[in-house]
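Checklist before submission:
- one chain only
- standard amino acids only
- sequence pasted in full

Submission:
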Amino acid sequence: MAENGAGSGTGVNAAAQAVMAVVLVGGLAAAAWVTRDSFDTKAADPKPAVCPADSEGRSEADETGARLCRALNRPDLPALLGTPHDMVRNASGKGGEFTRADGRKTVSPEAEVGLTAYSVKLSASTGELKVGDMAGLLGPSVERTTVLGHPAALYSDRTIALTFRLDGGKSTAGQGGIARRLLVAKGPGEAGGWFEVVVWRQDDRTPDDAALFRVAEQVLPAAPGWVAG
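Returned file contents:
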């Protein structure tokens, strides 16, 4: 996460009245994270974020999203990302939904964890398309691979950097960095849906693929619906 300017000891000065957000666009999902913690110089030390707890009356999709969040929000997540001293700033899980061109609705539960340097997203799909089908649709730059013996596909997406003015000024948008995305079949075969793990940075640097694979290998076996090979 980057910020314009620096906060003074008495509040937010004119040079610091903007917040940067890195927004993931395109591909299969979209997400954003904005933080204003550093502008409040009187705030107590932040505590690591927690995921939604189980709750009666929540939809099955939302409950699955909460479970994905708990699988993703591991104590060792910063270490897996290569930033062991980083702190989780926010964590969320929900039952995402989108409408296809033919009008049918597909539920895709998702979770996101935001750290100071990184954001990580985990989503699940029971769609009809297999990982191999998706790899064919995503273009020639997709790298077919495996994760824990499951078919997988690795590809890139672009983020957008947004600047939100805290003083009422005009917000601006520009090209951000690269997000790395990993589609992984839920089971050793391609049938039965897939998970997607996405990692992007709060600056314009490209995430480390080794970190992405470390996260996937540790998180996915704890995700609801994973089928061990």
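Reviewer check: The CA atoms of residues 74 and 110 lie 16 Å apart.
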